Amino acid sequence: MTSFITPCDSLADVRSAIDQIDAMLVDLLAERGRYVREAARFKRNQAEVAAPDRVKQVIDKALAHALETGAEPEVVEAVYRSMVAAFIQIESRQHQALHTGPVADTGTMSGCICA
Predict the structure, then answer these.
(1) 39-47: Cβ within 8 A, 24+ apart
(2) Which of 17, 46, 75, 105 is the most buried (most CB within 10 A)?
């Protein structure tokens, strides 16, 4: 799939287009987050939340799609690893809250499994 960009006449036009894309990305992240929190209901333990095999599958699929679309694989992999790690933390807190009660948010991702 090849995507064409609208020609821009200025840096302001470029930045405006990027801002629109960023807004769409945030909307999609919000939607993804709702599904991640929903997934916590179906997992029996924290190992299922971490799901390293699923993480690998998601990243591999994103990399394959990057190659098909001309996206930079290094960027796609870095973004996906970071995104998945952050969502695992969210899902872990959701899972724990559902199964044992709320957990304090430490504001870190030190215990995340990224691969």
Answers:
(1) 39/91, 40/91, 40/92, 40/94, 40/95, 40/98, 41/98, 43/91, 43/95, 46/92, 46/95, 46/96
(2) 46
Of 56, 26, 41, 55, the C-alpha closest to 96 is 41
pTM of the entire structure? Answer: 0.79
pLDDT of 48-63, one tens digit each? 999 999 999 999 999 9
Q: How far is C-alpha 96 from the geometric centre of its chain's CA atoms?
A: 20
Q: Residue 77 to residues 16, 64, 66, 112: CA-CA distances in angstroms?
A: 25, 10, 9, 16
